[in-house]
Amino acid sequence: MSQIEKLMRSHMVNFATYHGVDPSEELARKAGIKPEDVIRLNANENPYGPLDNVSAALSGLPLHLYPDPNQRKLRAALGEYTGQPVERIMAGAGGDEIIDLLMRLFIAPGQKVLDCEPTFGMYSFSARLAEAEIVSVPRNSTWDIDIPAMLEAIDDSARIVFLASPNNPTGNLLTERDARALLKTGVIVCVDETYYEFSGSTLCPLLDEYENLVILRSFSKWAGIAGLRVGYAIASSELIGHLMDIKQPYNINIAGEAAVLAALEHRGELLERAATLIEQRKRLEAVVDEFPGISYYPSEANFLLCRFERRTAEEAYVELAQRGIFVRRFPQTVLDSSLRISTGTPEQTDLLIDALRRVV
Ligand SMILES: *Cc1c(COP(=O)(O)O)cnc(C)c1O
To answer: Is there an atom of ligand 1 within 6 Å of 252 CB?
Structure first.
């Protein structure tokens, strides 16, 4: 063990990091193609990019000043958008920061964090950082929550349950019934609605009934500003008050704030783009229905989890990558024969369908 490692917290010495998506130049280099030929369908990003109105809002900002630690304008705009009181809302540097802050607020080393596999990897990543005990309860064959197993696992040391709705990467919604069953245990239940603008489905009405409910949202996927890192939490005013107390004072930067205000002002156009992306997912579903050797799981989000039957997902991944199309694979997991494909523009979908036809 090195001197540095001796000084480190021991659980971080051999820490398995979270591998985020590579930049397009890197993807191109690995596949031996040109960066401009890369089609990124691997991170559920918005292929349209930001609205012109959003880009325009980024020029001439007072970059020499610190942003508002109380997020006044941002929280007011989010309150108007969600129909929730400002005291119930806090913005974070992406949903990712809020996941991390929930760990800081609730988890002492050894306490339990629960999630339902397969699901978004940041829950267990942040839980491991917090030295939590992670209990991952497998989803059933329709990717729904195994409620009896969850209730069994929730004991005195359980603190937070993370449930994505729609779930990434499976695409299905959390049912209100399952949410209630878990909320009734009294532990913190974080319902991650990052894909809300695609699904149109929310459990926000339950906030009036349960003070242990946290709804997580993001501007990364539907609003096309993943690079600016803005997400938010909606929860009881008590819980939000504590989150506000422990967050870094300037967690939302000036550019992120301005972009979100502009995006909300022009939300109509963004929602139209979201609707186009959903249409593309449906196009892809119809084509996959016709192709032999490939099937998909029903999705309420801007991605489709496809299962390959006659060949390995790895082979399909490589063939798509050679054509410049990058998707998400899940080696050494229950999804090792599946690929998650983000929905692209109509033109990208044409190319994807063409490539898939050859692959299967
Ligand atoms: C992408 C994603 C997030 C994180 O988004 P941010 O960019 O950090 O806002 C959170 N939850 C799920 C399920 C996601 O897929």
So the answer is: no
Give the Å distance between the CA of 243 and the centre of ligand 1: 19
120 ligand 1 Cβ < 6 A: yes
What percent of the chain has a predicted confidence (pLDDT) above 70?
100
First to last CA, the chain: 49
Residue nearest to atom 15 of ligand 1 (CA): 168
Quote the CA–CA distance of 91 and 42 in Å, as a whole number: 25
Whose alpha carbon is nearest atom 10 of ligand 1? 95
pLDDT the model gives residue 30: 86
Strands 112-115 and 158-164: parallel
pTM: 0.97
Residue 23 preceded by cis peptide, ω within 30: no
CATH 3.60.110.10 fits 52-265, yes or no: no
> How many whole angstroms from 195 Cα to the centroid of ligand 1?
8
For residue 221, give the ligand 1 atom closest to its CA.
1
Which CATH number, 3.30.420.10, 3.30.590.20, 3.90.1150.10, 3.10.120.10, labels domain 21-49+268-359? 3.90.1150.10
Q: Which residue has the tokens 């829950």?
A: 123
Mean pLDDT of 97-117: 98
